[in-house]
Every structure is written in structure tokens, then in C-alpha cells.
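Design job #97: recover the sequence.
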């Protein structure tokens, strides 16, 4: 797969295998991971840390979607 997504309850996610963040807003963050795009939806989303291919995102997660890159 090339990435790992760990949901930390409704309070955030930890993602391994991050190439870059594509879009960041308080309600949506798009994450580029290998051959996929992870779309996180939520409330008061915030990038807590980003480095060495890992990202920690906090906020109330209301849903996420994993799509193939086009």
C-alpha cells in the first residue's frame, strides 16, 4: 500500500508515507501518499507535525476518503 493511516478517535489522525499536503483548510486536508490521495474532512483541522514522511493532524474528524491519483 505504501502508507498507514491511524485514526486517533475523533480527535485526529496520524499518517505515515506522506509525500506532501495538497490542500489545507480548517474543514478539509488533502494528503498525497504514494499512489493515493487521502481527503480528511472535519472541524478545526490543524497540522500538528509534518516531517520525515509522517503527518499528525488534529481536530474533530468527521470522515475521510481514499482515492486513486488521476
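Job complete. Output follows.
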Amino acid at each position: 500500500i505504501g502508507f498507514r493511516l491511524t485514526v486517533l478517535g475523533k480527535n485526529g489522525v496520524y499518517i505515515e508515507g506522506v509525500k506532501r499536503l495538497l490542500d489545507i483548510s480548517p474543514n478539509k486536508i488533502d494528503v498525497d501518499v504514494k499512489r493515493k490521495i487521502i481527503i480528511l474532512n472535519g472541524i478545526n483541522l490543524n497540522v500538528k507535525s509534518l516531517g520525515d514522511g509522517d503527518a499528525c493532524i488534529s481536530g474533530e474528524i468527521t470522515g475521510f476518503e481514499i482515492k486513486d491519483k488521476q
